[in-house]
Amino acid sequence: MKLFSSVNDVTDIKALVAEALALKKDPYAHQQLGKNKTLGLVFLNPSLRTRMSTQKAAFNLGMNVMVLNVDKEGWALELRDNVVMNGTTVEHIREAAAVMGQYVDIIGVRSFPGLKNREEDYTEVVFNKFVEFCGVPLVSLESATRHPLQSLADLISIEELKTKVRPKVVLTWAPHIKPLPQAVPNSFAEWMCKADVDFTITHPAGYELSTDFTRGATITTNQADALAGADFIYVKNWSAYEPYGQVFPGNEEWMLTNQKLKITNNAKIMHCLPVRRNLELSAEVLDGPNAIVVHEAGNRVWAAQVVLKQMLEAL
Ligand code: CP
C-alpha cells in the first residue's frame, strides 16, 4: 500500500480487518519490519487519539517517529500556486512536503476543512498537495472529507463485538454548538456501505451528506424508525453539505438517551471522540454499559498498525 486516504485504497476490507485483529493478538510480531524506518506525523490541526495511537502503532512495528505540529511549530504554509508570497505565509507546500519526504519513509497528514469553500475542501487541496510533493507513501490522519483510520477502527470494533453475522448499524446525527466537518460521517458511511452490515443513516432534514459517500445506505429523517432494532449506533454531529458548513437552530432532541435505547437491540454506542457530554451524547449513555467509545479508541492502534505494516511491506 502506498496511499491510505479512503476505503477505495483497500482491495479487501475483510482481510484488512482480520489482519488488524491478528496484530492486536500479537502486536510485536513485526518489530523488524520497521527497524531503521521513520514515520513523520504532520498535524495542521489538533489531535489526541490519532497522534497517540499512530505513534504507538509505529513503535509496535519498530519504527522511529517524528511529529511536527505545523499549526503551532512550523512555518506558515502557502498552498496556492503562482502567487507572490508577500503576505503571512513563509514556505510553500511544494518545498515543505518535499523536504519532509527527505527525512521520513512514510508520512501521515492531518488537515481539516475550512468549511467555507466546498469545492476547495472536497477536492482535498491540502492533502493532495502532500500526496503530490512528499514523494513517500502517505496515510491520512483525517482530511477535509474523510477519516479512514477512524472508520477502519470502527469496523474492527463492529467485527469484534457483533453478535450476528450482519448487524444493523445506524449513523445518527447529534446536536452540537458549532459547525463540524463531514469527514467522520462521510468516511463511516462509505466504509459501512462496503462492509457486510445493514446500514442506516438518520439526521434532521437539511443535514443530507453527499451521495458520493452514502450510496447503498437507508436514509431517514425519523430517528426512532432508524434506531429500532439497531445493534450498533454511531453518534456524530456534522454541519450541512448544502448550504455548505451551515448549522440550523433546534434539533436538541436528537441527543441519544437511555430512553431511546429501549427500542434498539441492546445497541452498542459508538463515537469517534472527542465528544461533548450532555450536548452531543448524554452522560447516562456514555457512562452506561452500552458505550464502547473507549474500546473503539483503543482499536485506533490496530487500524494504524495494519496500514503502516502494509506500507512498510511495499517500500
Ligand atoms: N477521533 C479522533 O480522530 O480523535 P483525535 O482528533 O483526538 O485524533
SSE order, one letter for each helix or strand: EHEHEHEEHEHHEHEHEHEHEHEHHH
Order of strands in the sheet with most strands:
1-7-6-2-3
Terminal Cα span: 9 Å
The helix tally amounts to: 14
Highest CATH level, the class of the largest domain: Alpha Beta
Radius of gyration: 20 Å
Helix content: 25-40%
Bin the strand percentage: 15-25%
Small-molecule binders: phosphoric acid mono(formamide)ester
Number of strands: 12
CATH architecture type of the largest domain: 3-Layer(aba) Sandwich
Number of domains: 2
The CATH topology name of the largest domain reads Rossmann fold
Q: What is the H level of CATH, i.e. the homologous superfamily of the largest domain?
A: Aspartate/ornithine carbamoyltransferase
Q: What structural category do the secondary elements indicate?
A: alpha/beta
Largest sheet: 5 strands, parallel
Shape: globular
Low-confidence stretches: none
On the 0 to 100 scale, the average pLDDT is: 97
